[in-house]
Amino acid sequence: xxxxxxxxxxxxxxxxxxxxxxxxxxxxxxxxxxxxxxxxxxxxxxxxxxxxxxxxxxxxxxxxxxxxxxxxxxxxxxxxxxxxxxxxxxxxxxxxxxxxxxxxxxxxxxxxxxxxxxxxxxxxxxxxxxxxxxxxxxxxxxxxxxxxxxxxxxxxxxxxxxxxxxxxxxxxxxxxxxxxxxxxxxxxxxxxxxxxxxxxxxxxxxxxxxxxxxxxxxxxxxxxxxxxxxxxxxxxxxxxxxxxxxxxxxxxxxxxxxxxxxxxxxxxxxxxxxxxxxxxxxxxxxxxxxxxxxxxxxxxxxxxxxxxxxxxxxxxxxxxxxxxxxxxxxxxxxxxxxxxxxxxxxxxxxxxxxxxxxxxxxxxxxxxxxxxxxxxxxxxxxxxxxxxxxxxxxxxxxxxxxxxxxxxxxxxxxxxxxxxxxxxxxxxxxxxxxxxxxxxxxxxxxxxxxxxxxxx
Length: 456
Hints:
The chain has 456 residues and is α/β, with parallel strands linked by helices.
């Protein structure tokens, strides 16, 4: 009998991309998959995605961001999903549903799947480490940690112990989209109620990066958990001798001040491993004052760099910085081909906010970090990179204070001269060369066996 898996994505490209890749993985295992997407993301689906065998999409009403269940758009989305499932259940031409894999950001859809006796698996589009640390901070009541105190987490290594700096952060930083910040560390994680009732968990990670944290989450929640990533576009698994071009990943055009060819030409002119890549996410960034401090550090640093400046941030840049740094710096406005830059042999460091997809891209391509987390899971992603797999440095030890030019300049110098760290990053990269991680292949196989037994 043919069986179908529903995959429900949350909002934003950082949620959509992993869900599309997950559908492709299941399609290659001969499952039918239906990707359920918020209507706001329909234009982001490349035509090539629907050309995969046994893969289809359906949309539900949405705004541009998550809304409470009481919102009229949320209520309409629930009606859309229920009507779609009811129609399928009455049509014998559709494959029988096996399960729904639900991004916890849209955990409200669980109740609708349950109406049709469809079991739910909760998906984290970020890594298991951040989830594990958020869970531990809540369970250990970390809000009362004092300066100088270290609070060990049973089941996790000593270097991941909670400290005062893990809890003391800047006031909530809203995203460029206007949404408020996440709950404070030590509060109940917002995803806890969203995964209740799930039969299993999936994480967008692999054992080579944070398998220990996947196991911790399985033990803590009491249900199976698997690392099935990193769910990056398949082009990332090419040989490192082949650059990852944006046009090969998606047909979607992006606005940028530099073409891919111009970026390649500039990178080709720089020595191997000499370029610092500076990029924050499209949703968050440093404060206005910190942008000026960053610009000053880049101007005074001797090495070459690429700096991606998002729309709305240009006003914070010193006037005429492009001309003052001349060919030593390439300042790209709006969008930049991040995968290509990280994949290029001249790139030797990444100053990053440690969003999960960016973190995994850099790890896959062997680029060490200067970690500058801004909000949410980025802080614990940075802790994973710095403390556990040891392929990065923090831009400063106290991220609750304004990051200064001297912090950035010193961080750049330390990062770009740390040969041991570069070696560790290169050793980790080898595990990803030309192939999706073997542990994640095994995890997907284990999930297939589990869900087949669960529904028979």
